[in-house]
């Protein structure tokens, strides 16, 4: 039972990562996120700076909402958009993991190099001693 | 001249971000990156764990190469793949910027709340003094 739950959780984490990375792969959507991370705003305010139809911007907003990066709530007649920064945590965590692997490899290589250098130094000392 | 260069640089940075985020938006491609960040490997080694044709994996590898996340070099007859971790720096930087905006907003809200609280406290002291 626990294993099935864990597998489900891993599958939905994978789907979330897919959706967030895909949402971030567009300059208009990244600009919307930058705008909203400074201040929540109405859909029309978000659309204003872009040279495209409100409909086109709305499509981008729907992609952002589906990915969980942007949230919508109502304030009277207005639809207010805001960024859910926690949605970026998993993405951040994934990149961090890649960096960790990489750094472990660099550390391992450094250790090997240090050992080689030590062996070389003691080897040349041995040779010097032998030549006396 | 400098402005044109700056605009070109911004445009290519945008294109790089688009390409890297799109490359990361697929579980097979993320698994390939995880694999390569531990150790560089031949194309056939990378393809091995996946239940798909070598051709399908090769397509994913080409997307990763086009985005700059994966690099290829030849060692004799073998094509060796490795991860270019610097390709993730810009992506990391972008997420970091969003977090900064967000934290600035939280700090500003906290300041306002503190001010409000201070005003309230001194206000209630004034009232107490007035009621004596």
Give me the secondary-structure topology.
The structure is a homodimer of 132-residue chains.
Chain A (H helix, E strand, L loop, with lengths): L1 H23 L2 H12 L2 E2 H5 L6 H14 L2 E6 L2 E6 L3 H45 L1
Antiparallel strand pairs in A: 1-3, 2-3
Can you tag this structure with a few keywords?
elongated; 132 residues; homodimer; mainly alpha; three-stranded antiparallel beta sheet; 11% strand; 5 helices
Short description:
Two copies of one chain form a homodimer. Chain A is mostly helical and 132 residues long.
If you had to describe this structure to a student in words, what would you say it looks like?
The structure is a homodimer of 132-residue chains. By secondary structure, chain A is mainly α. Chain A has five helices and three strands, in the order ααβααββα. In chain A, strands 1-3-2 form a three-stranded antiparallel beta sheet. In chain A, a hairpin with a 2-residue loop joins strand 2 (70-75) and strand 3 (78-83). In chain A, helix 1 packs across helix 5 (87-131). Chain A is elongated. Chain A starts with a helix and ends with a helix. The model of chain A has no long low-confidence stretch (mean pLDDT 89). The A-B interface holds A 14, 17-19, 21-22, 24-27, 30, 33-34, 37-39, 83, 85, 88, 91-92, 94-95, 97-99, 101-102, 105 and B 14, 17-19, 21-22, 24-27, 30, 33-34, 37-39, 83, 85, 88, 91-92, 94-95, 97-99, 101-102, 105.
